[in-house]
User: What shape does this take?
Amino acid sequence: MNEQAARHAANAGNAAGRSGAESDAFRVLVVDDDPDMAAFLARMLAQQGLKADIAVDGYAALATIAADPPDLVLLDVQMPGPDGFEICRRLKASELTALLPVVLVTALEDHESRVRGIEAGADDFLSKPVRREELIARVNTLRKLHETRKELEGRRLAAEVQEKESIRKAFSRYLSPRLAERVLRDSPQGSDVFRDLSQRALVVALFADLRGFTRLSETVPVSNIVPMLNEYFTVITAAVHANEGTVFSMAGDSMLVGFNVPVPQLDAAERALNTARTVIQSFAPVAARWKRDYGLSTGVGVGIESGEVVVGNVGAPSFTSYTIIGDSVNVAARLMQRAAPNEVLIGPRAALALGSRLSGGIGPMQRRSIELKGKSEAVEVISFRVAPAD
Amino acid sequence: MSESIIVTVARDLEDLVPTFMKNRGKELETLRNALAAGEFEQLRQIGHRMKGVGNSYGFEKVSLLGQSIEDRAKAADRAGLEAIIDEYIEYLARVKIVYE
Assistant: This one.
């Protein structure tokens, strides 16, 4: 879609995107039932390097314009069939031809025709008998206007493409490329998606954290730490995007991911569960290499909980961040802190949402009651470990 | 008949002029028939057209005659129209074209 729009924008500068040598010629349709007058006007225009076609009456004119719109119409007033006023009115009434400049050719002293022409929406007038200097001057003025208009239209389209691109960039900070594409497709004003969601929503929150990295970071050269973290985040972000999760934040070595936001996902809890497993499994080869190189174990700990949260852009005007705030986010964070390397802890509400899907194929599970900071009562959680090569 | 009337036409219109002259001949026929039938509206329209096209090619007289035909047709002035059509016949017979 984006590519198409860009092509359109590039073409807008040319003569309506036609190809071939003739495409650059400014095309005028001369409409006159007097063949001598039509031939005279066409000749004058051709001498200016313009391409002139002739229509001998109103019906022929309308058919020609509909089939292949010219860049300008020179329109005689008196004609059998629909006259010049009628044709002008019809052209100006149609969305497709409203911007097509129309020059009405009237008798010099015919003031009534001028008034009617203005009412019909004519862009300019030319007096009969036609003086060639006047014809050329009027056509050239409208041609310049037309070219400016096309250029502006081209710029407007380019700006539109650029705006879409910036929305896409803003999106891809949070969403998987596939999800961003879908959101943009469904809502051309993509920013609405974020604006409209400054509200309460049911979200499945997932926190992932790199266990053992603090100790590892004390033993590796400082210059290695950022590349290692980047490698870790790259691997787990890919896993998140594969499940169409939304990355809300990365801080230190932990990451907050949301599901069912900003677009609804009926299987949000399942996606979170799959993400937890994929994150741990796809990080395992990296952990193995680090262990080989530095002799210390690392692994990803994951906490998941679902519940109602507030979603929105939070921050100061100069720096806002798309954020989810709520108890389920806090619980997921606390669970992550309690999770061992390669362990997933699922809060009670997420466990409820997963229901029977928890039992299928995820290996031995434990029901545990754990105390969480900030909670007066112990929380019932489900825990399981993911084998690095499951 | 009497001497020629010289009309100067732009050279870039030269190839269009034979058709233009042929159409004037046809026009004359139409004018006479219309007058015979008393079709003043048709006469007015033809006069109006002559007025527009004549000068554009450089035939000032055709425009002037067209103007007179238009005016007299509006007034349903049969005798006046007859006189102008005769003048048109004579003009077409005498006109000589020079291109430059």
